[in-house]
């Protein structure tokens, strides 16, 4: 039965090529726009979730006010991490990142400028998930003047990432660093990215009031970060507040996965976005899809006059309202499936320009090819059913004898509904 419905729907599309083209093109463009925005929103919501321990990682930030001065900073000072680790047993690891490790580096006759090189504590790989291609993450930054480089920069300097291990690279002041590890490139959906990490001295300490490092905590499994945060005022009172001699001071623990969309502090380690932007784009995507569906409904019901006799004939040969409704919904689903296929082609053509505009590296198959096809198929069927419900109910309600005569009866309610849809889509 379903196969027969699809055959009928396909023949009907071929019979009315102009109408089919307009309907399919409208839905395809709407679906393409919706899917591209969905890819953008999904990427924004995915930041830092590649870390296997993401739900236990928190960044320490600080807020202070004295006189007319306000301080809302993402970086803290060097003593924060070891002092917090020693004070609170809930903290499994505390690691620091210093962003001042970049410069001009050279190997033999090759020289490149890399400003995105950071210093980090040796336990940084215990906190964050940066997969190693070569080297041992447990000891990679344990020795002084060690450096772990990304696959991309290794290829630039040595041609082959594997050849980079145990080589020596030099910074512009002839400061040598031994390559102790090569990692995969840091994913773009991270609130900070880098091309290399240099070893930060274990005893690095330039005072409580020099705010130049980013402090991250890995809590024990089951630890409640809000309870830990409630204990921080006492810690601050006997350390940083005592030295700064201020009363209005607060330490905050930011969940790693919330930083990109919910943090807008001074001296962020990377450029963040905003959850309001995500809400805005989600609303735009929904509106585009709704307008595309409304246009389909309007066009389908507007063509009802040419199909009223078809309904009458089908009722004469025994088709009931349910069968007619199923037939028209099948046609709508077929239109949507074809539109989805065309939408994929449109996205492939437009996505490079969209990526350049959005500063992203989105792909159509972001969720995996099979998953994407399953999502598109399910989404197309659902959209087709939603789009076809009203036209199918409207067309299948005609009575047999009047339909055979081409009489459509009182359409005032239908006209009012369509006008309402037009007004809604215009708004």
> Helical amount among residues, as a percent range?
40-55%
User: Span between N and C termini?
Assistant: 40 Å
SSE order? HHEEHEEEEHEEHEEEEHHHEHHHHHHH
Sequence stretches where pLDDT stays below 50 over 5 or more residues: 400-418, 421-425
Output the structural class.
alpha+beta
Task: Enumerate how many helices there are, as a single number.
Answer: 15
What oligomeric arrangement do these chains adopt? single chain
Q: What is the number of domains? A: 2
Q: What characteristic shape results from the CA principal axes?
A: elongated
CA gyration radius, whole angstroms: 31 Å
The biggest sheet amounts to: 13 strands, mixed
Strand fraction: 15-25%
- The residue-averaged pLDDT reads 85
Strands, count: 13
Q: What does the model show?
A:
This protein has 427 residues and is an alpha+beta fold. It has two domains: 2-46 and 274-426, no CATH class; 54-262, no CATH class. The chain has helices spanning 2-15, 17-45, 80-87, 124-127, 151-158, 225-230, 232-237, 240-244, 259-262, 275-302, 308-316, 321-358, 369-396, 400-404, 412-426; strands spanning 57-66, 69-73, 91-98, 103-107, 110-114, 117-120, 132-135, 146-150, 168-171, 176-183, 196-199, 213-219, 248-255. Strands 1, 2, 3, 4, 5, 6, 7, 8, 9, 10, 11, 12 and 13 form a 13-stranded mixed β-sheet that branches. Helix 2 runs antiparallel to helix 10 (275-302), helix 10 (275-302) packs across helix 13 (369-396) and helix 12 (321-358) packs across helix 13. The radius of gyration is 31 Å and the shape is elongated. The relative contact order is 0.16.
């Amino acid at each position: 039965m379903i196969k027969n419905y699809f055959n009928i729907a396909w023949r009907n599309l071929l019979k009315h090529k102009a109408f089919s083209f307009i309907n399919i093109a409208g839905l395809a463009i709407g679906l393409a726009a919706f899917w591209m925005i969905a890819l953008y929103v999904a990427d924004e919501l995915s930041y830092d979730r590649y870390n296997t321990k993401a739900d236990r990682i928190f960044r320490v930030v600080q807020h202070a006010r004295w006189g007319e001065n306000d301080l809302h900073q993402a970086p803290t000072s060097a003593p924060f991490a070891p002092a917090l680790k020693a004070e609170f047993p809930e903290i499994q690891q505390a690691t620091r990142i210093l962003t001042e490790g970049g410069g001009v580096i050279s190997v033999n006759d090759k020289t490149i400028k890399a400003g995105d090189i950071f210093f980090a504590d040796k336990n940084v790989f215990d906190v964050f998930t940066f997969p190693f291609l070569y080297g041992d993450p447990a000891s990679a930054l344990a020795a002084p003047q060690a450096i772990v480089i990304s696959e991309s920069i290794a290829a630039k300097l040595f041609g082959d990432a594997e050849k980079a291990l145990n080589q020596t690279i030099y910074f512009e002041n002839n400061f040598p660093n031994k390559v102790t590890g090569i990692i995969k490139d840091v994913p773009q959906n991270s609130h900070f990215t880098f091309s290399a990490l240099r070893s930060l001295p274990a005893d690095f300490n330039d005072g409580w009031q020099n705010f130049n490092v980013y402090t991250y905590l890995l809590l024990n499994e089951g630890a409640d970060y809000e309870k830990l945060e409630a204990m921080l005022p006492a810690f601050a009172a006997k350390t940083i507040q005592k030295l700064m001699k201020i009363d209005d001071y607060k330490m905050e623990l930011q969940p790693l996965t919330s930083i990109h969309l919910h943090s807008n502090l001074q001296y962020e380690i990377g450029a963040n976005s905003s959850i309001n932007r995500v809400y805005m784009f989600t609303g735009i995507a929904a509106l585009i899809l709704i307008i595309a569906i409304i246009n389909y409904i309007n066009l389908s019901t507007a063509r009802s006059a040419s199909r009223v006799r078809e309904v009458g004939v089908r009722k004469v040969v025994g088709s009931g309202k349910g069968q007619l409704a199923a037939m028209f919904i099948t046609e709508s689903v077929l239109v949507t499936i074809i539109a989805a296929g065309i939408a994929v082609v449109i996205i492939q053509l437009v996505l490079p320009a969209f990526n350049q505009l959005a500063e992203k590296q989105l792909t159509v198959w972001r969720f995996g090819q099979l998953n994407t096809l399953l999502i598109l198929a399910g989404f197309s069927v659902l959209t087709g059913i939603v789009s076809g419900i009203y036209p199918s109910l409207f067309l299948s309600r005609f009575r047999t004898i009047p339909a055979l005569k081409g009489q459509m009866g009182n359409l005032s309610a239908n006209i009012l509904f369509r006008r309402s849809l037009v007004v809604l889509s215009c708004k």
